[in-house]
Write a structure and sequence with these properties.
Blueprint (H helix, E strand, L loop, with lengths): L2 H11 L6 H14 L29 H12 L8 H4 L2 H10 L8 H10 L9 H12 L18 H20 L15 H29 L2 H20 L14 H26 L4 H28 L13 H9 L2 H8 L6 H14 L1 H18 L8 H13 L4
Helix pairs in contact: 2-5, 3-7, 3-17, 5-9, 7-8, 7-11, 7-17, 8-9, 8-11, 9-10, 10-11, 11-12, 12-16, 13-16
Length: 409
Amino acid sequence: MQSHALESIFFKLYSETSLVYLTKYLNVIPKIRSNQCHCLHFPNRNIIQTRKYASHRDAPKSFSKAVSDAEKLVGYPTSFLSLRCLLSDEVSNIAYHMRKLVGTKHPLLKTARGMVFDGKNNLQIRGLLVMLVSKAAGPNSQAPYTEQDMISGVYPSQRALAEITEVIYTASLIHKGIVNLKDIVPEDGPLIDMEFGNKMAVLSGDYLLSSACSGLAKLGNPDVVDLVARAIGDMMTAEFTETFETTNTSQISTRFTDWLKQTRLSLGSLLAHSCRSAMTLAGHSKYLEEMAFSFGENVIYAQQLCKEITSFTNQDEQTSQSPGSLAPVVLFRELASEDEMSYLLNYSPDSVYSYNKLLNVVRRTGALEKCQDLCVQYRNKAIASLDCFKESDAKLALINMVTAISSIK
């Protein structure tokens, strides 16, 4: 079967996330060759009916429901945003070689699976939020396009920007799968597997970044290029300002202001600058640009706080991240007495008993409750940033999504 025919089939089959092509490719080729695959229809593109606008307290708590409603508004699943560059000969070759990693312990495959399904938020949302903000802002007579050029209320350049945002974020996640070979132990498997996995992570991540840069140039807007370049620069800076690398909880002296800065650089900057760029592309006012930027930044703060609170309090949601780097423990250091700080000195990451003691003392200091309050505050700030937009289904969808991704279970 020819390469272009395979790409056509993949485009019809998979509507999950931007990296799903890489992961599904590893297992799907034999099925295609044996004619066992079945084509799926695209989701319904009809716009959801206008309904009574509700407060965020009435918003659906289901993340999947909020995403589904939002995708209907923007015209098609945002999981297709990155397919243009993923369905290419270069990525096909990378995916083919990635099959060699199956059965190894290199984290690149785990990274890919996590981007498809991470236990709760099983979809990437940045591109979707960018398009919803674009739709909520509406058309502008100063835009280089006519209102007739809009597709589901979004200008073509804004849709391209949403695609670029997803590609950049995907590239950053892939690059995070690079292993420090100095830390390899025999239990991790052969060194040659780790070296090969690192090469795949570097090549695939760099290819996606180059595709994003090419897409930025095609937008033909120097201001937008500058804004997105700042976001990429912030993400790179975050890799060198990371203060949570040690697994020894007592050695981490970071304050909550440092946590905020690191979260902004590594996660918040991309969405904030992308939302602002969407306003710039449509020629909207500086005020709308500032509000869109504020929305993107505060959404990430709320989402990350929710994620880290859940990770700290629910052992089923535990990640590879050290508990000492999580927001509740960072706040705990600022509130704890000397006696309470001794729990950090005696903390053992391999002991369930030690973990439960740390959890209890963090609860006792009120750090967990303060963290939850901050999550609500940043959620409310994000929603308040939307007051500059008139009431619409897009605005309601944004409120629903912010509420869903920052709801602590």
